[in-house]
TrEMBL record:
This protein's name: 3-methyladenine DNA glycosylase/8-oxoguanine DNA glycosylase
InterPro entries, per database record: Alkylbase_DNA_Glycosylase/TA, DNA_glycosylase
Keyword DNA repair among UniProt keywords: yes
KW Chloroplast (keyword) present: no
Organism (species): Nonomuraea solani
Alphabetically ordered keywords of this record: DNA damage, DNA repair
Superkingdom, taxonomy of origin: Bacteria
UniProt xrefs under PANTHER family: DNA GLYCOSYLASE, DNA-3-METHYLADENINE GLYCOSYLASE
A GO BP entry: base-excision repair, AP site formation
């Protein structure tokens, strides 16, 4: 199935889809040499593969599998058609310049909670490489083959009941310790309620009622599933330092970051995305967080 959609303004498809990539070799995400992005998803209609490209003023989507119709219906939202920038104003010169250089920045939404939840939980309190290694192992072991002519090795995230049934020794082989494994399995029991959340506020309430999910994890999920432009990843190992350095020239902590982001209420996540796009990074003067390997424990 195919769909062509014409956005009503500048749109950078790559920027909109980048947040859904979980490290190099992510089995659910590929970008081909022609710039097209391939992405798999488990939709309400079933698994699908979606290929998204842009050119000639339109976005072109091609989809395969039982979930193809749903995926194409959601295509505009996925690349940011529902992103409302009303009320956003760059109060800092560096953010104004980043916004000027990236007029096509849009925050998209997938409408799928569990496929954002699992990698977010895997990324809790560990370096990205460790989490992405676990994500790849679990998808290759338990994910379904991607429908259609997807690039080799692509997989679709498992059904919630599969996450509930993964044995402890396979979590261990993936490199995820018992706490993160238990958090994912518990969330999978409540997947239907989470997927049915009607708003980002309701989803935040449901997520944070689950053991093992706090402010950071909820924000990471809502940014992707609901395209929440105000969901700040409080508690992130790097974010507060980056925001402080970009906006003031000095590192700061989470309370300091929230004070700096007060002028962007309603768009605080958008402001942090622009901080990343400035390319400004504080000098690295301390030891880096080490990559652990729970498989050896």
């Amino acid at each position: 199935m195919e769909r062509r959609w014409v956005p009503d303004g500048p749109l950078d498809v790559g920027l909109a889809l980048q947040p859904h990539k979980r490290g190099g070799g992510d089995p659910t995400w590929r970008q081909s040499a022609d710039g097209a992005v391939w992405r798999t998803s488990r939709t309400p209609g079933g698994p699908c593969t979606l290929r998204v490209s842009a050119g000639g003023g339109h976005v072109h989507g091609q989809a395969w599998g039982p979930g193809a119709e749903w995926a194409l219906e959601m295509l505009p939202g996925l690349v940011g058609a529902d992103d409302d920038v009303t009320g956003f104003r760059a109060e800092h010169d560096v953010l104004a310049e980043a916004y000027r250089r990236h007029p096509g920045l849009r925050i998209g939404r997938t409408g799928r909670v569990m496929e954002a939840l699992v990698p977010a939980v895997l990324e809790q309190k560990v370096v990205g490489q460790e989490a992405w290694r676990a994500w790849r192992w679990l998808l290759r072991r338990y994910g379904d083959p991607a429908p259609g002519p997807a690039p080799e090795g692509m997989r679709v995230v498992p059904e919630p009941e599969v996450w509930r049934q993964i044995p402890s020794w396979h979590w261990h082989r993936a490199g995820a310790e018992a706490v993160r494994a238990r958090t994912i399995a518990t969330a999978a029991w409540h997947a239907a309620k989470l997927e049915a959340a009607a708003s980002t506020r309701e989803l935040d309430r449901l997520l944070r009622a689950l053991p093992g999910i706090g402010v950071w994890t909820s924000a990471e999920i809502r940014q992707r599933a609901f395209g929440d432009p105000d969901a700040v990843s409080v508690g992130d190992f790097h974010l507060a330092k980056l925001v402080g350095y970009a906006l003031t020239g000095e590192k700061t902590d989470d309370p300091g970051m929230l004070r700096l982001l007060e002028p962007y209420a309603g768009h605080r996540h958008r402001a942090t995305v622009l901080v990343w796009l400035t390319g400004l990074r504080p000098p690295a003067r301390g030891p880096r967080m080490s990559v652990r390997d729970y498989r050896a424990f």
